[in-house]
Amino acid sequence: MPTLVSHPDEVKVISRRFGQGAADIEKYIELDGYKAVQKAIAEGPEKMPAWIIDTMKASGLRGRGGAGFPTGLKWSFVPKQSEKPKYVLVNGDESEPGTCKDHVIFLEDPHAVIEGTMIAGLAIGSKMGFIYLRGEYRYLLKIMEKAVADAYAKGFLGKNIFGSGLDFDVVTQSGAGAYEVGEESALMESLEGKRGVPRIKPPFPAVVGLYGGPTVINNAETIASAPHILLMGGEAYAKIGSERNGGTRLFGISGHVERPGVYELPMGYNLKKAIYDVAGGIKDGKKLKAVVPGGSSCPVLLPEEIDVGLDFDQMGKAGTMLGSGGIVVLDETVSIVEFALRTIAFYQHESCGWCIPCREGTDWIKKTLTRVYNGGGSKKDVANVQYLAENMMGRTFCPLGDAAAMPTLGFVKKFRKEFEDYIEGNKAGTPIITVQQLVGAGH
Amino acid sequence: MPDVKFTVDGKQLTAPAGTLLIEACKSAGIEIPAFCYYPGLSLQAACRMCVVRIEKMPKLQTACTTPVAEGMVVTSESPEIAQARKSTLQLLLGNHPLDCPVCDAGGECELQDMTFKYGAGESLYAEAKNHREEQKWSPVVYFDRPRCILCYRCVRMCGEGMDVFALGIQNRGSSAVIAPNVPAQMSPDHLAHVDCEQCGMCIDACPVGALTSGAYRYKTRPWEMNHVTTVCTHCGDGCKTTLGVRSTSDGAEIVRGDNRDKSGINGDFLCNKGRYAFDFANAPERITAPLIRQTDGRFKEVSWEEAFTHAGRKLRELRDARGGQSIGVLGGNRLTNEEAYLLQKFARTVLGTNNIDHHRTADYVTFAQTLAEQKDRTASWRDTQTIPAALIVGGDPTNQAPGTAWNLRTDVRLNKARLYIANTAEIKLRRQAKAFLQLAPYGYGALAAYLAGDEAVAQSAAADANALTSFRDAVKAEEKLLILIGSELRGTDLRRLIEFGLTIPGARFALLSDYVNSRGAADMGLLPDMLPGFTPVSAPGAFAEQNLPTAPGLDLLEIFEAAGRGELSALYVVNSNPIARYSVDPAALKNTFVVVQEMFFTETAKLADVVLPAANLYEKGGSVTNSYGDLQLVQKAGDRAGVRSDFEMIVRVADKMGADIKSLVPFGKAQPGLRADMGQSRGAQAGEADRHAVWLTANNLEPKLSPFDPWAILDEIQRLVPGYNLLRLQLLSGNDQHLEPEAAASAVTNRRDLVLPSGDTLFTSGTLGRFSATLNETRQYQTGEPLIQIHTAAEFGS
Amino acid sequence: MSEIANSIFTPATAARFDHLVTIYPVKRSALVPMLLYAQDEVGYVSDAVVTEIAQRLDLLELDVRNVLSYYSMLRTKPAGRYNVQVCTNISCMLRGGYEILDHCKHKLGIGHKEVTADGTFSLEEVECIGACCWAPAIQVNYDFHDNLTTVKVDEILETYRAGQGKDVK
Ligand SMILES: Cc1cc2nc3c(=O)[nH]c(=O)nc-3n(C[C@H](O)[C@H](O)[C@H](O)COP(=O)(O)O)c2cc1C
Ligand code: SF4
Ligand code: FES
């Protein structure tokens, strides 16, 4: 069971109810639960949608799923009139390595996800929301199912919610093991009972989404932030964060730190401080070697590059991404060759296989790095890996190809010498994966 | 859609808004490479070969999914784009077996061509390729997994195109694979198989050699074949097909049937029969020498001269002794129009009889007569691709006319066409129908009457009265409607249905029949009461110049009845097997002199006195008319020593009877005093007109015209047959053209229609099918395989 | 009162499936969870499971197989009663995930995707399971065990072997 951690620098907005038993509906209500949705409804049927969207826009909230798209703006793209039903889809597929923040939300504050879903539904005029959890999160699915059932029992969900005259239903859904299903259109395919292969865009989900209807899809954390934003007001929320990056975010700090855990920090919080102060610094007093700042798909940062604010824009300027907020810290013992191999092995395993550059590119990078790792590499291989990754970038059907290419490029560019030394027999770091294990690592 | 203007590679182009960039470029002659894109099938954007640069877009874009937009500025080739394509090819080739020298697709492979163009020659990888054994999915479909580039064309072709869904994609990432619907563990031989209609469209669509044809694989290299474009001989759709032909010691063997050129009336489509069932032509059972029955009852091989002389002399004697009315003539549904015309002309002018008929598979006489005096009321097969709505009464296109079914499905898929289907059986096409009306047994007549306004018969039309009413209302509300009629409707029923349809101003009609030239046989007057063009024998019109008998002759059944009574002196059968088809007692013919032109020892050929070995439709030239009345060119592809075309044989028999060949076949220039050169049998190249070209040229004659040249008869058809005012150039350039019958209306009621549907399924094809090893093997396979749940249309009759 | 005669599932599961197909705008949406729940009951997605689910959702069996083979949690061969899934992805890797995997292999005497002779355990190396901040972590069936050491793993395996481990489905 996840251990809850805390640090004085944290600003508790979304984690406000963590550790207080808010999975229980009574407790949730006691802690201002379902107030936000009632506040919205109090605006009256005419003004409510615009009020919600304006508040969300004012909050500066940007999607917590990875790409950081402004949430209020996304909601505003949904057409008012639609022949087909509109849907809200909550992305709880959380599979980006290094990321476990939605895990804590589902566990500690499931009703916030439901309430956020209702708010999104009211904003766009939808009557139905889906909360999709990755298949591995079965115990969390049960928590969510219970929360949904309790909300129905209270009459919060279903017909005429809070006397608004509007109906809203929530259905929970389980995946069955597939990272790619976290991609929004692949998630819709999966929810429609199909292979998790993404869809051609345009049309975008806001216009043609689930079952062909206009759909808002958001990360679970994004959705769970909505009730807090409505309660505290958009401007107040925005003020907590940095420029154009409103509010706080759950950061998962993992790897070689003293106090790994999920911390809620204001957007723009300094990465170095997050590692050294919040997470207690490098484990066992070792030296820092590298940081993967926002889930495994983000290009690696060197120790000298981590004095940077944790928001979408500053990370972008630093040549990497804020991503899913999963900060993975590597100490001096890590072999980058090995780490790069483990990273690409993941993407190779998770590529849906639809398009050639991603399907074949991840496979060849993995094969080549495997050979390098096993001592059969040549310098040309490093160039080949770079060539492969460069030719995947921007050419694939969905962003998974980029997600595989970007970290690979980061590793071979920033640690080229380590790769070359490795090939010549000078292996840095302490090997973790043994050759024998690698044979089996194909899953 | 209004046109938009855009620029590609500096060229100003226009195209209707919404056109995909890849198609717009193609129309402008700019070829954009693509593996996964296939016109008309759903978009994939998976192969990333079609990437182009569009101004203001940060990334390269796929031309296959981008609709053209006003002011769009596109670059279709640049070093950046070439590099993107090259790297994609390198990735594919990394695991590709590169067994091109033995691959069926070698030389016709899109991957080869692209590699040639973008030069992904060097190998970047040291790892071994993934090898997998080739899989035999069915007798005609083989899958070579390592060659597969996962373009998903086959999957879509099978699902979207064929509505069969026998192929899927399984696993994911680099393990992703195309999988057939019978998994190994569910199959008795523990190998994966495909349970489907065996159309081979997946093979056709495959850009590489991953899917190969059981009938063709490892037989030859594509460049070693000659490719001849002709018309498939099997069903009444008459698909255009390309036959790959290779020389052998005794002629030219057809080794492949496919639809690579796609210029035909059938568009992308070819069914299993068109694709594989050409092999009857190579069957060992073929008769390759003329035979005369000896007094001991045994056949003896004789020379052509002897056979023609014998047949000619006997026929002349019998005609002169017992009169033309004592002779019967039966023609086939797989003759060319020229042959059918010639046969009836031979019967009427040389034998002097109207006792002429053929195995009728639809009532075209009523069809033509009911539409007399109408203009533009008959549908071309092409209409089935575009018409906004279709009413299909009777028939089962999926089995009977698979190309028609394909077109209708495509029309529904791409144009949202509305199909209204009324049938006594739950035919497969109902899955595309907007409304399917389950008719009561034998309910066709009642339906026709009901549609025409007779409420009283509703009960006998369909059990569900509400469904019936709403069906009629929906059909009547259509403005542009194809009325496609099965052979179940004949005579009065057919007339009523057409008359109902005529109340809809935009309705067009078609009547489905069963063989490649069933329609031509009727059009060309292989009928006892009708001259060509449905001209009644009693009112011959332009045919009066031929001095034909004006009393209707005996129909097919009456001919055999006459034989049974001992009144038939001779029977001349061309390419037809009435004995088996109509279960005629062989004893009926014991006192009749029988001449049979045939490929095989059919039940009818076995009773003959003279057997003349015949060429089939793939071994001769001419024209055929499909069910819809679309005329197409037939060209000679295969050749077989020891056989001759039906056309030549009829002329030679007539010659031996002492007929004036010049008036039978108006060949050559009209030069007074010219006699036909009847030539000699010259080596193996029998049955072809062209071999007289030398002699004709030497005599300063039109080189193409000889008494064996079908085009000489085509002139006459064009001149005399109402409705056959065809465009010669269209025909010769291989384009189809729609012809409309111009019959005279008839007051005759209760005419015997004698329609006997062939009952063929996807895996049978009349007599020919019995001699196609591949078709038989496929049929046995499909009936033997434990079909899990595939609702294929194929009924597995015999 | 299942809608399918002779269902291969227990009445409870069959009833659950009857309900499941009703909650979505399109019943096919039930496919992925249904396959997973069927696997929870039967142990794996057998051919019979495929057949019945196809029937329940009006799908071709091929459709079901296409989907089934996409998702890595779904298996077409039986696993052990307790399927030990060891994450070796980056966060776990950095904190001993491979050591845990090695230890399990050694302890159980089986490799990746293998089952112990008595059918009690199977072992699987898996991708990130969303427990990065509590690494190294494993899942035994659906239950998470985190902040592991080899000693803790031994205890966990023993508890399961004794039939006392947590096993919530
Ligand atoms: C390969 C891939 C995997 C993704 N996985 C997830 C995921 O697990 N969870 C998630 O919320 N978003 C994921 N995303 C992002 C979603 O596509 C989508 O952008 C997001 O759910 C939108 O929500 P947001 O605006 O709230 O961030 C993924 C994207 C890609 C390309
Ligand atoms: S995937 Fe695209 S990119 Fe490829 S041809 Fe196909 S359509 Fe084009
Ligand atoms: S499959 Fe989507 S990028 Fe590869």
What does this structure look like?
The complex is a heterotrimer of chains A (443), B (798) and C (169). Chain A is α/β, with parallel strands linked by helices and 443 residues long. Chain A has helices at residues 25-30, 35-42, 44-59, 71-76, 101-108, 110-124, 138-153, 184-191, 220-232, 234-240, 271-278, 312-317, 336-350, 356-373, 379-392, 400-414, 416-423, 435-440; strands at 87-92, 128-133, 169-174, 215-219, 248-255, 261-266, 288-292, 326-331. Chain A has 3 domains: 14-240, Rossmann fold (3-Layer(aba) Sandwich); 248-331, Roll (Ubiquitin-like (UB roll)); 336-439, de novo design (two linked rop proteins) (Up-down Bundle), CATH 1.20.1440.230. Chain A has 18 helices and 8 strands. In chain A, the strands form 2 sheets. Chain A has a 4-stranded parallel β-sheet with strand order 3-2-1-4, sandwiched between helices. In chain A, strands 6-5-8-7 form a 4-stranded mixed β-sheet, covered by helices on one side. The radius of gyration of chain A is 22 Å and the shape is globular. Chain B folds into 4 domains: 3-77, Ubiquitin-like (UB roll) (Roll); 92-213, Alpha-Beta Plaits; 291-358 and 525-738, Rossmann fold (3-Layer(aba) Sandwich); 365-512, Dimethylsulfoxide Reductase, domain 2. Helices cover 28% and strands 17% of the residues of chain B. By secondary structure, chain B is an alpha/beta fold. In chain B, the strands form 8 sheets. Chain B has a 7-stranded mixed β-sheet with strand order 15-14-27-26-25-16-17, with helices on one face. In chain B, strands 2-1-5-3-4 form a 5-stranded mixed β-sheet, with helices on one face. Chain C has 7 helices and 5 strands, in the order ααααβααββββα. Chain C has helices at 11-20, 31-42, 47-57, 61-68, 90-94, 97-108, 150-161, and strands at residues 82-87, 114-115, 121-126, 138-140, 143-145. The longest helix of chain C is centred in the first third of the chain and has 12 residues, at 31-42. Chain C is elongated. Chain A binds chain B through residues 178, 180, 195-196, 200, 348-357, 359-364, 367-368, 371, 376, 384, 387-388, 391, 394-397, and chain B through 43-48, 51, 58-60, 65, 83-84, 87-88, 91-92, 94-95, 124-127, 149-150, 169, 171-176. The site of FE2/S2 (inorganic) cluster (FES) has 12 residues of chain A, from helix 14 and helix 16.
